[in-house]
Design brief:
The strands form 4 sheets. This protein has a 10-stranded antiparallel sheet, with no helix packed on it. Strands 1-2-3-4-11-8-7-6 form an 8-stranded antiparallel sheet, with no helix packed on it. The protein has one domain. The protein is mostly beta strands and 292 residues long. The relative contact order is 0.13.
């Protein structure tokens, strides 16, 4: 697990289906907003493996909700407490989605009868040729739905939402490149957000040395360990995590000579032209970059 607390958390785990010849390697990103009712969502990629061809796999999700609706590759769960959930299935490409239902009732001392009902969804696929790739996007009643589009090669996705636009690269074990006119992501796990208020976010989490980067316009972040940047005009702050490492931050030509601090103390930096290199110690840290 890695955490860049203000931007995202990443975790990874493996299950083997009780030794039945099926394995699931689950990678989860929790994308965060400073606003609790803003764009906070979960991206999940399940890479599967089997010992037999055409092995059946199932992806299941149950919610405390009302009866969901299915529209092509999206499922909408009406929430019981004013928050709904949209589930976008990005892979398999033509998902077979079915609804499920479960309920129980039990007499509990003092409380008397206690009941609960859940609605669920199930996605089925055969073989490991495609991953399960999905986005779980909660939204308060009345908030507009996000638009989620998978990249052409299936390595990443674009999320257009009420706070701006995100590009997310989630391609563990298979470095990839994902870009549009102004945003570039490279590596295995990286992220960029162009917010409606003009601020920019960049984050890299995982990938080979010198091959993991996130860039928007003239701003570029490269690192082999988790680092994030928040850019509000010329105010730059961020977080780092993991082992000790170097991070290279490319500043735009307009940015003047700069100094950096880590946890409020002066940081060891070097600069060559627009490139600022910071030496981060191991562990979780915050940092800032300021004009001299």
């Amino acid at each position: 697990m890695h955490s860049l607390p203000s931007v995202m958390d990443y975790s990874y785990g493996k299950s083997d289906a009780g030794g039945r010849g099926r394995e699931d390697y689950r990678h989860i990103l929790i994308i965060k907003s400073a606003n609790p009712l803003g764009d906070n969502y979960v991206v999940i990629r399940d890479k599967t493996a089997s010992t037999r061809p055409n092995q059946d796999f199932y992806w299941n999700l149950f919610c405390l909700s009302k009866d969901p609706t299915i529209e092509r590759n999206a499922v909408h769960f009406p929430g019981q407490l004013g928050v709904d959930l949209d589930v976008h299935v990005l892979s398999p490409m033509e998902p077979k989605i079915e609804k499920d239902y479960w309920n129980w009732k039990h007499g509990t001392y003092i409380w008397d009868d206690f009941s609960e009902e859940q609605y669920g969804m199930r996605v089925a696929k055969q073989s490991s040729s495609e991953d399960f790739f999905s986005v779980l996007y909660p939204r308060a009643r009345g908030q507009a739905a996000a638009k989620v589009i998978r990249s052409q090669d299936g390595a990443g996705l674009r999320v257009s939402h009420m706070e701006g636009t995100d590009l997310v690269l989630l391609s563990p074990g298979k470095p990839a490149k994902f870009e549009d006119a102004t945003i570039l992501l490279r590596g295995e796990i990286s992220f960029a957000r162009k917010a409606a208020d003009g601020s920019l976010r960049l984050a890299v989490v995982k990938g080979p040395n010198n091959e993991t980067e996130a860039a928007i316009g003239d701003w570029r972040l490269e690192s082999s360990s988790p680092v994030s940047l928040l850019i509000r005009r010329d105010r730059v702050s961020g977080e780092s995590a993991g082992d000790s490492h170097l991070a290279c931050i490319t500043l735009p030509p307009r940015f003047p000579a700069a100094v950096a601090s880590i946890d409020g103390a002066p940081a060891e930096v070097s600069r060559q032209g627009p490139e600022l290199t910071i030496n981060f110690p191991a562990g979780n840290h915050t940092f800032s970059i300021q004009p001299k």
